[in-house]
Amino acid sequence: MSPRRAMLMAAASLGGAGAVLLSGQAYLHVKGRVARVLIDRACAAYLADGLVHRPWSWADTHPIARLEVPRLGVREVVLSGATGPTLAFGLGHVSGTALPAAPGNCAIAAHRDRWGAFLRDLRLGDDLVLSTPAGAQRYRVAGLQVVPKGAVEVLAPSAGRRLTLITCYPFSGLLRSPWRFVVTCDEETVAAEPAISRTGSPSRGSRRDREPSWSPASPPGTPDRRSRGRALP
Known about the structure:
Layout: H1 3-49, E1 63-69, E2 74-79, H2 84-87, E3 91-93, E4 105-109, E5 127-132, E6 135-148, E7 162-169, E8 179-187, H3 207-210
Parallel strand pairs: 2-3, 4-7
Antiparallel strand pairs: 1-2, 1-5, 3-4, 5-6, 6-8, 7-8
């Protein structure tokens, strides 16, 4: 085989591989857009009649609420369950915690690089709106903290309505992380003074200034021993 022919065949092979990759990316993009439309429609139907509406017939999840952050222009659907497949399509309700609109601590998880990316921009005092067929409930951000993955105490039941939002930390990370960024929100009807846990010190100013800092009591790489065997989403 001549060198010229070999080069042409190599170029054709590379071009074919590139086309396959591009077509695969295009397929995933279209699939994501279609899934989003179907999930939004299912959520609208659920908020209207309170019945279970699966976004597609074989879906193992369904909308149970809608979460909004007016200051950030965020409007996301909350799906049942916080499994891997569910979190690929949106926010997921952590099983075993209070359901949206019910008294207690309602925990919601999300991936840091997609649906949960807005958590890094939340500030103390921000308003959130959680909508269900029962109506809209307003919450206010009361705490920001970074905790070990095993700190399941953030899921503990609460006397009043509480919203706990969870995602991986740091936000710029690409690999699996043993840390979680947790946002605690109290219902606005409950008087609560915004506070920051010992593990965080967000303040007004730049994003860097608002990100939690580590306390000497819990440096990176030393999760609490009590958390072994248990983990947050």
